[in-house]
Amino acid sequence: MTWLRALFAGGLSIFLPGAGHALIRDWLRALVFAGLYFSAVWFFFPISQMVDAASFSEGMDIANTQTDTMAQFFIMFIALFAAIDATFRAVGFPPNSSDSSDGPSCPQCGKELDDDLTFCHWCTTRLEPVDPEDEETPIDAEDSEQETPTRP
After folding, report:
1. Rg (the chain; Cα; Å)
2. What domain of life does the UniProt record list for this protein's source (predicted)?
């Protein structure tokens, strides 16, 4: 399921950079890639001429003829880089530093979890409930002798 999710995030980022990062809940990267893409489109495309077009295909013809090759390359580079980044981030590369956290982690994806959930909100894996008796450590016999007062 992780590879399918990664490919879907990458494919979504081809059509709209930042959307694949939003799918994997990487909000800061989603905003950065979407902002980069929309600012490049605003800067390079002749939007005022495209709005005056009678149909969508005529607008795309205007955009293709009025935009130079380097501008088209730059916009497509942003989309391709966003797709590659979203794919690698969805797979888990580079590994997250959530291993050093004190809280519980998901056995499927390894990301940090909330204590009160019965499923992983990242990969939707159902989690088995943990008994409170299992979490307690038994007291050593030596420690129990020291804590109990002795009577003469």
Report:
1. 26
2. Archaea
